[in-house]
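From the pipeline queue, job 12 of 40. The input is one protein chain; the requested action is below.

Action: predict structure.
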Amino acid sequence: MKKQRVDKVVTKMKENGIDQAIISDPYSIFYFTGIMLNPGERLFALILDVNGKHTLFHNALFPIEQDLGIEKVTLFDTDCPTEALSKKLPKGSTVGVDKALVARFLLPLVNKLTENKFTDVSQIVDRIRMVKDEEEKELMRKVSLLNDKACEKVIASLSKDKTELQVVEDLLAIHRELDIDGESFAPIIAYGANGANPHGEPGKRYLKEGDSIIIDMGGIKNNYCSDMTRTVFYKQPSKKAREVFEIVLEAQKRGVAAVKPGVRFCDIDAACRDYITEKGYGEYFTHRTGHNIGLECHEYGDVSATNTNVVEPGMCFSVEPGIYIPGEFGVRIEDIVMVTEDGVENLNKFNKEFVVIGE
């Protein structure tokens, strides 16, 4: 067990009058135990108890040999998960449930334990996961630098003879070459007008002269995720495309520069959005400025106009403004940043300035 992480949750549970917490999100269970499982439809849950009587439930199909210093309960397919959970929840206690516990387990438990109070514990867990400890910070640095190397190789692989999907294949091969464990999301390679869709799906398009090329990619290493976007151009981009790129680049730099402890997430969003609006392209910036990242590519928390929470040292999130002109092209530039004690550390070092390939 990761005692310091567990202790933080237990402290918050006590402050909020929660006696036990059922954690069923596999990423959160890994965060506390170091055990990563994908149990499918079977129960996989960690009960955290304010008195220290923590219990991990797992199915016999997913044996756990490690000594975690807590009780482990092995369930078989013939067992009733509700019955097993209920035995660890004293009558009348207040039980926190995370957002991942599915209804087929939660509803029978609520119906069985009529004298218990059930409440949401996700805010506690998610907010603690937002602030990375020293071990996590180093893992985030390493995976982001790997992503830099991969992106450089992907850009070098671009060719007028390759479709978007063929570049994706190159990207996957580059990940294997760099010993990256997998993709943190389905990569986006979008040429020209396809890039005007922020989540344009790679297809069988070939490059045309002047096309923008959006490369949105991320990998996983040691269970932690990276994410970055670069936009480059093929041969001679239009004057408008160059102008839009420079606006997005300046907006992105302003967003990164705004990051420091105590600043609100919405103010970082405004640093990007207000500049793009000032330049006349506000209607074409159609998404939030960023998202938090760690064990998952999209974790709790975002850089948006509605998030008035303040950033804290150790938080990691993306800064990724974009402008998308329907039927023409798109531009997005994204870095992952980490909040430091007095400012910001940009985890992506790879060039994001204006680049033209194929000349």
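Job complete. DSSP finds nine helices and 20 strands in the chain.
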